[in-house]
Amino acid sequence: MTELIILLIVIVTALAFDFTNGFHDTGNAMATSIATGALKPKVAVALSAILNLVGAFLSVEVATTVAKGIVDLDQFDLSNAWDSHQLLLVVFAGLIGAIVWNLLTWLLGIPSSSSHALFGGLIGAAIASLGFGGVVWEGVLSKMILPALAAPVVAGLVAAIGTFAVYSITKAVADDEKNRYFRWGQIGSASLVSLAHGTNDAQKTMGVIFLSLVATGHIGTDADIPFWVKASCALAIAIGTYMGGWRVIRTLGKGLVEIDSPQGMAAETSSAAIILTSSHFGMALSTTHVATGSIMGTGIGRQGASVRWSVAGRMAVAWLITLPASAIVGIFCWWVAHGVGLISSDLVGVLVAFAILLGLSSYIFARSRRAPVDPSNVNADWNEESNSVAPAAPSTPATPTAPAVHPEQDTAPRSKNEVTK
């Protein structure tokens, strides 16, 4: 019974990660369409949510990579109750690391990779449990690290070439007319990115839940992913997408490049092509890296456009530390859950780690309410001075003041005779 309760907690935590993945990565598909006015904010996230839901059922190649390509399952004797619990603990601690990093970067409006946060958390927890031998480093390198380095570069080049071609071909068309037609095109290209996002990202949580079911003996390592796992993950990421990660949407739509509709369509088409290709080959690609690279490429490909390199640099730093930062949280949470479990019981250890997750999540959410970003201000002008995701406070007009009176000036009313004199 204890193991079943722990499994349920792990599954709930996995779906919570899937939810954060949805609202954290909505901007990958819809930020440019919202920024150019092709879609209204609420309509954009609703459309993206529906297509994420559909896309989650189209493939399971990435789920297989996550389930069998990060943690070395051969290191666990799943017929042994102790080893089974250790694998479950690895999955649980890894999820906490991913959720905390997702929420922190969302608070700062940094479009970091939810995928790499998950991988980092799992890698850290596996190292804490088994040492460095507990990680399938070959799979991590070939299907995660190398694609992560190549994806933004390739996406940026494709988007830059596409943007340059579009503006060259439509040089004779007036800007207003050009933008009007390309806004219609953006609806289709943004929809394709949302479909691709569901195909790639929802599967990562499917793989994690698959690992949990393997750990508890409910399915074998060679089994297919159950339908209820696919359906619950698809629904969780769709709900998260509909909530709208407005802080990240604002950074991608307004903070990186001031974007017009032709650029937006070029970025979205480039992103969709690369994400769908990687999903077909089972590469657990970061849709954030692809989308960000594409948006930067449109700034390079359009003459006269500019990229805010300070914002891009901050994002690059976040990308570099995502894996190690989430791994550190995963290691810490594994130590907490495992250490408390040795003193009291396994269930108490898991509950303590879960309480830490709830506490950190509540604190981050409370901080976000100090400078909220929502559909009403997501397209507000970017604050060039602070480069912060929070919109600048509206300036209040100065109130007219009465003219100053010199202290020695006689302001007493005068009689008619005094005035005559």
From TrEMBL:
Stretches that traverse the bilayer: 43-66, 87-110, 116-137, 149-169, 316-337, 343-366
Biased composition regions of type Low complexity, renumbered to the chain: 390-404
Disordered: annotated span: 378-421
Biased composition (Basic and acidic residues): 407-421
Chain intervals with Polar residues compositional bias: 378-389
Compartments (UniProt record): Membrane
Domain of life: Bacteria
Keyword Membrane: yes
Pfam family name, one: PHO4
Family in the record: Belongs to the inorganic phosphate transporter (PiT) (TC 2.A.20) family.
PANTHER family: LOW-AFFINITY INORGANIC PHOSPHATE TRANSPORTER-RELATED (PTHR11101:SF54), PHOSPHATE TRANSPORTER (PTHR11101)
Designated name of the protein: Phosphate transporter
Organism field: Corynebacterium deserti GIMN1.010
Gene: pit
